[in-house]
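User:
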Amino acid sequence: MGVAVFLAATIYGVGKTFFWPTMLGVVSERFPKGGALTLGAVGAAGVFSGGLLGTPGIGYVQDYYAADELSRQSVPLYQSYAAPDQKSFLFFPKTTGLDGAKVGAVMTKPEADLSEPERSVRNAVIHGARMSLKWTAVIPAAMAIGYLMLILYFKTKGGYRQVHIQGVGKEAVEVT
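Assistant: Predicted structure:
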């Protein structure tokens, strides 16, 4: 398990190290007329998708699967730990997750001090967290496919080439 975590962190670190400068390089070389505005817009799209979609989406998935797991084990136990309000995310159905205050008390207890119902709650929360990680892994997989398609696209065009701007003012022409 420890080796898998280290390997995953290494792959993530390498990806993060090369993603941002590569993205900026490709955008600035392929769209030179866009300048700083284009670079900023591309960066903002990533930040917005991560902050406005990623975080609430991950929380929704975690709530959905934790609540589902606990309700399948014991409906009365789920009802006693259910959050007071429902949550929704985009077009997905509403879900009633678990109450963070009640769950927090269970999650901070040592394993040996947990009652059987508390063990069920802890296991449901862990299940929800694992499922959110599984669903979140779809995003980098989709990005990898997108980058592979971009590589194949450039191969069909004879390779990646920087776009150069020649001329001044209205006579400026992009040359590949």
